[in-house]
Design goal:
Elements (H helix, E strand, L loop, with lengths): L16 E7 L9 E6 L4 E5 L8 E6 L8 E7 L8 E6 L4 E5 L8 E6 L8 E7 L9 E6 L4 E5 L8 E6 L4
Antiparallel strand pairs: 1-2, 2-3, 3-4, 5-6, 6-7, 7-8, 9-10, 10-11, 11-12
């Protein structure tokens, strides 16, 4: 890894960023945007991020207690729309997708899973294009027991086909 570019100095406001997810939220061709959830529940979208610049800042949600309960988020194209979607796992295990999120705000909320104990064990999740359909709609989850699962071709309302990539204890 070479050519490091410092985006913000040590001790900057970025120490309060709880989660960051890259995506495509501005009808562009490339995933050059960052969705940021802050410690105070604020949700910010930075478009056209590049080396040495955070691009344009767009506040999607003012600081609030509701978004303090978001435990994980990732970005993917689960709806097939031009702008990507934000998938959120809440503290109670609920999964929601915000369809076609843009600089204008979070997209329409769509429930993927009701609150449940299983999804409280989702420690890490990311989305990408890992199957032949050429969409960034594949969800990868690492569970608390070490299992890693690919949900291929996930839609904004339902998980895709479950494929275990790493079994627990291996």
């Amino acid at each position: 890894m070479t050519g490091e570019v410092q985006m913000a100095p040590s001790g900057s406001i970025w120490k309060n960023a709880i989660q960051i997810s890259a995506g495509q939220f501005h009808n562009g061709k490339y995933a050059t945007d960052l969705m940021v959830r802050w410690v105070d529940g604020e949700l910010t979208l930075y478009t056209y991020v590049g080396a040495g610049t955070f691009g344009t800042e767009n506040r999607l949600m003012a600081p609030n207690d509701i978004w303090k309960n978001a435990t994980l988020l990732t970005s993917g194209n689960f709806s097939g729309k031009a702008n990507w979607d934000v998938l959120v796992r809440w503290v109670d295990g609920e999964l929601d997708t915000y369809v076609a999120t843009s600089t204008a705000g979070l997209g329409a909320e769509s429930r993927m899973r009701d609150p449940n104990d299983l999804w409280k064990h989702d420690l890490v999740m990311t989305a990408g294009n890992y199957t032949p359909n050429s969409f960034n709609d594949d969800l990868i989850v690492r569970w608390s027991d070490g299992e890693t699962t690919l949900y291929a071709d996930t839609a904004y309302t339902s998980l895709g086909t479950e494929n275990t990539l790493v079994y627990p204890g291996t």
